[in-house]
Write a structure and sequence with these properties.
10 strands; 77% strand
């Protein structure tokens, strides 16, 4: 297993529980991806994959404007656990692999 694939995230935010989709691709050894939520799709920036661990940032649109949010996570089978950091501090999140 790897972190490549589609994930449904569950995130507690100041705007309530959000469930964006995270897509991670590997094209000839180069990883890329997108984060898709209710406000649209944004590309992942600075994506680093090290085995089952990944980190990236994304400019996430919110009702107060777009903000860069940093994510770190580790995959264990079909589960993803990590934290995201915004101007509100660090908050844990989880995810499950989508079929």
């Amino acid at each position: 297993m790897s972190v490549v694939g589609n994930w449904k995230l569950t995130m507690e935010t100041p705007f309530g529980v959000q469930t964006p989709s995270l897509a991670i691709k590997n094209d000839a050894g180069a990883h890329s991806g997108t984060l898709t939520g209710s406000a649209g799709t944004t590309p992942l920036e600075g994506l680093k994959v090290d085995g089952m661990t990944l980190s990236f940032s994304a400019k996430v649109p919110t009702p107060m404007g777009s903000f860069s949010i940093a994510f770190t996570a580790t995959a264990n089978g079909n589960e993803l656990k990590g934290e995201y950091e915004s101007m509100m501090g660090k908050t844990p999140f989880s995810g499950v692999r989508e079929a």
